[in-house]
Write a structure and sequence with these properties.
Elements lengths: L1 H5 L5 H25 L3 H4 L3 E4 H19 L1 E6 L4 E4 L1 H17 L4 E8 L2 E6 L19 H7 L6 H12 L2 E7 L3 E7 L9
Parallel strand pairs: 2-4
Antiparallel strand pairs: 1-3, 4-5, 5-7, 6-7
Length: 194
């Protein structure tokens, strides 16, 4: 009901409420995902999906946050099929996009394929070098999370756990003040879609 009331948000206050509603929805989804991970294998359906369709779903979900923050979105997604579970991978892409938006106050978020990796790159505040190896640990918030108090320390842990179970992998490169690149390796040792 709140989303319907705010769907045509045209004031700063309405847009701020919409952003807060999105945050609440995301935190609820993270908790539910954490609980469902115990039985993830019974809920997993591996099929061939177009990578750009999964990315477009996530971008659509967060599209209303790009505009008020004046963050440009650059997408260059070729039509590439990947063997994965759409729901679980979409959650991961949404989480990475959400982080990019949360820690970028101006500039660009870019989404593209580089060989067999989906790359989500931002021009945000970046992650301190000593924090990068620990960002996938459950509960780790790092310097940025402690400073801004925006981090739960669970999002990237969920992403890594989900990707491991899907047979994919994740890695991060980041420089403070320059931004972050998240690489999702989507190749699996499986048969071709043809």
């Amino acid at each position: 009901a709140m989303r319907l009331l705010l769907q045509d948000a045209d004031t700063d206050e309405q847009r701020a409420l919409l952003e807060q509603l999105q945050s609440v929805e995301q935190y609820v989804e993270m908790v539910l995902t954490y609980l469902r991970m115990e039985s993830m294998s019974s809920d997993m359906v591996l099929q061939w999906y177009a990578a750009d369709d999964i990315v477009k779903q996530a971008v659509k979900k967060y599209s209303q946050l790009f505009i008020p923050k004046k963050i440009a979105l650059r997408m260059d997604m070729p039509e590439e099929m990947i063997l994965t579970d759409e729901k679980w991978l979409a959650f991961v892409v949404e989480q990475i996009l959400s982080n990019a938006l949360k820690y970028t106050s101006e500039g660009t978020v870019s989404v593209y394929m580089k060989e067999k990796e989906l790359v989500i790159e931002d021009t945000g505040i970046g992650i301190q070098e000593e924090d990068v190896p620990r960002v996938f640990e459950k509960g780790f918030t790092g310097f940025n999370g402690r400073r801004d108090k925006k981090s739960t320390g669970i999002g990237l842990y969920l992403c890594k756990t989900i990707l491991d179970r899907l047979g994919h992998s994740i890695r991060i490169e980041s420089k403070v003040g320059e931004g972050t690149k998240v690489f999702l390796y989507l190749e699996r040792d499986m048969l071709d879609p043809e």
